[in-house]
């Protein structure tokens, strides 16, 4: 590994598409939510293509639902989101949902180096906390920050809030979407772009300091 980044005080991770294979919960929950709405009469018609949801992962929820159901009412967007979370929670309770290979070992390695670890996600509070807890990685993190809990308008603001609250002066932002790159750069962090979830566009990670194709590569960028 020829490139080495400055040793980070902290590493801030995105969740979906970075640590967690979100589609392993999202896709079955998505279809279950639309089936539910048809049964209760709050939605008629075909289920929108699931690709709209997958392509929007990492965005703010309001933007995701506008993408999935353009022109839909706020009530409809709220209901499908509520049901999606319900079915995701049920799947998590059953042990469903998959971390990317090597995530716990990678987090342990960073922790052993004395690096502070955090999550900053555009997801809902209960979803973020449940995934981290049920997948057994909660003990690695000092703080879990979500747009759902803090009602932040962008990932930039969420990361800024995290850094101010936790007293983080610098470090790495690790994520798979352009919003993660922007959040890192605008908050003075080095950016590690993750290109393995295949949610984003070709130029999604433009501006990253380095790009990895497997989360297990992350510790390789630590200085000797």
From TrEMBL:
Sample GO molecular function, one term: hydrolase activity
Top-level taxon in the UniProt lineage: Bacteria
Coiled-coil intervals, chain numbering: none
EC assignment: 3.-.-.-
InterPro entries, A to Z: HAD-like_hydrolase_sf (IPR050155), HAD-like_sf (IPR036412), HAD_2 (IPR041492), HAD_sf (IPR023214), PGP-like_dom2 (IPR023198)
Pfam family, one: HAD_2
Key words of the record: Hydrolase
Enzyme class per UniProt: hydrolase
Alphabetical list of PANTHER family matching this protein: PHOSPHOGLYCOLATE PHOSPHATASE
Name of the featured protein: HAD family hydrolase
């Amino acid at each position: 590994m020829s490139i080495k980044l400055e040793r980070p005080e902290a590493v801030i991770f995105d969740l979906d598409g970075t640590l967690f294979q979100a589609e392993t919960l999202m896709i079955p929950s998505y279809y279950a939510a639309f089936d539910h709405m048809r049964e209760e009469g709050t939605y008629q018609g075909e289920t929108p293509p699931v690709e709209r949801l997958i392509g929007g992962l990492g965005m703010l929820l309001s933007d995701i639902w506008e993408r999935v159901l353009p022109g839909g009412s706020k009530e409809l967007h709220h209901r499908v989101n509520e049901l999606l979370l319900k079915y995701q929670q049920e799947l998590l309770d059953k042990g469903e949902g998959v971390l990317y290979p090597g995530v716990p070992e990678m987090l342990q390695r960073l922790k052993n180096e004395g690096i502070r670890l955090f999550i900053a996600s555009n997801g809902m509070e209960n979803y973020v906390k449940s995934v981290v807890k049920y997948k057994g990685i909660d003990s690695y993190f000092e703080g879990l920050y979500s747009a759902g809990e803090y009602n932040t308008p962008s990932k930039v603001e969420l990361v800024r809030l995290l850094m101010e609250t936790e007293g983080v002066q610098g470090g790495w932002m690790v994520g798979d979407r352009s919003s993660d790159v922007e959040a890192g750069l605008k908050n003075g962090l080095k950016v590690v772009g993750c290109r393995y979830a295949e949610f984003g566009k070709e130029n999604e990670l433009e501006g990253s300091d380095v790009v990895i194709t497997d989360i297990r590569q992350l510790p390789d960028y630590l200085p000797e």
